[in-house]
Amino acid sequence: MKFSYSKVGVVCILIVSFLVYVSLVAYSEPAVQHGFAVPSSTPPEVAIPEGLPTVDYYDNTANRPDEGRSRKYEKAMQVLIPDVTRDIQSVSMGDWYVRLGALPVKESSLVVVGKVDSVRAVLPPSKKTVFTVTAISIERVLSNSAGKEVKAGQLVETEREGGVVRFPNGKRIWHQVAGQNLPKPGTRGVFFLSSFFPGYGRDDDGFYLVTGFEFYQGNVRLLDSLPPDHPMRSYEGRQEEKLMLSLEKALKGHRED
After folding, report:
1. From CA 26, how far away is CA 72, in angstroms rounded?
2. How far is residue 71 CA from its own chain's centroid?
3. Full-model pTM
């Protein structure tokens, strides 16, 4: 009987040791929760590209115009580390692009041709994440099933998670959803928008930027960094006119379905 108790004691010690080890590993490595990568306590320093939309972490007045649209981001996982001592990057992982076709009209409630007027980074009150509001000056409305009027000459604001957060010591966090890029002011192209925000649900008062094609010297390039075998890659480098013909045909077929 004593021998049996000894074996039980050894097993208990091994189990406790294993749980402690797992806890230490989980604490020291980046955690991934619901597709959001939480930075580790000592991430490497990175070179943050110039021109990305930036917001100051402790400037609470900058967020007031966007309080309404910020509410849905209160459900975000924590991706920001306050008062970092170096420039770092935080990347949220996900498969947002997997279901997108070559021309993602089915995933969009609004498809427009337009020019990026401005971009601004916004911190929700919880300061768990950062998102960017992109204002697009509409040239043409190609498709609209969003239930709200949108017309040429109008500015439409879209949202996408990501941006740069700056701290008083001058150090920054660059947050990005893997594969998603932020449009630059002056960029012209086709933009696919939706009232559904992945991870946050539907917001009929706003538009999520699904993806887009940029126009550059009469040709097409992708807004986002998609895998080499993604269907949208088939339009990269093609002429703007050919993309528009294919898109109008796809939209006509989608409306008839």
Report:
1. 28
2. 16
3. 0.82
Q: Report yes or no: 157 and 135 within 8 Å, Cβ to Cβ.
A: yes
Q: Is position 5 within any domain?
A: no
Would you call 162 exposed, middle or buried from its count of C-beta atoms within 10 A (0-12, 13-18, 19+)? buried
Interval 126-140: pLDDT, tens: 899 999 999 999 999
Total domain count, the chain: 1
Amino acid, single-letter form, for residue 104: P
Does some domain include residue 140?
Answer: yes
CB 124 within 8 A of CB 143: no
According to the model, what pLDDT value does residue 20 have?
39
Residue indicated by tokens 């509410």:
71
13 in any annotated domain: no
Convert the chain into a string of H (helix), E (strand) and C (coil). CHHHHHHHHHHHHHHHHHHHHHHHHHHHCCEEECCEEECCCCCCCCCCCCCCCEEECCCHHHHHHHHHHHHHHHHCCCCCCCCCCCCEEEEECCCCCCCCCCCCCCCCCEEEEEEEEEEEEECCCCCCCCEEEEEEEEEEEEEECCCCCCCCCCEEEEEEEEEEEECCCCCEEEEEECCCCCCCCCCEEEEEEECEECCCEECCCCEEEEEEEEEECCEEEECCCCCCCCHHHHHCCCEHHHHHHHHHHHHHHHHHC
Q: Containing domain of residue 135, as a range?
A: 31-256
Q: What are phi and psi of 35, to 5 degrees?
A: 85, 0
On whether residue 26 sits in a domain, the answer given is no
Task: Tell which residue, 189, 176, 89, 171, has the closest CA to residue 132.
Answer: 176
